[in-house]
Input
Amino acid sequence: MGLILLVLLILALLACLPTWGYSNRWGYGPTGGVSVLLIIVIVLLVMGVLPR
Output
């Protein structure tokens, strides 16, 4: 379960990078939010709170 969540968050992080013309106005908001969620999930996986 935790590994699936980790993979989904990595894919979401790659998907929200501001690489298209219309997304340059977004700034770092979407990427920062997904990055924080990714860090939280990684820490929970390392601590053993989330099952693999």
Helices lie at 2-15, 29-47. The mean pLDDT is 79. Residues 29-47 form the longest helix (19 residues).
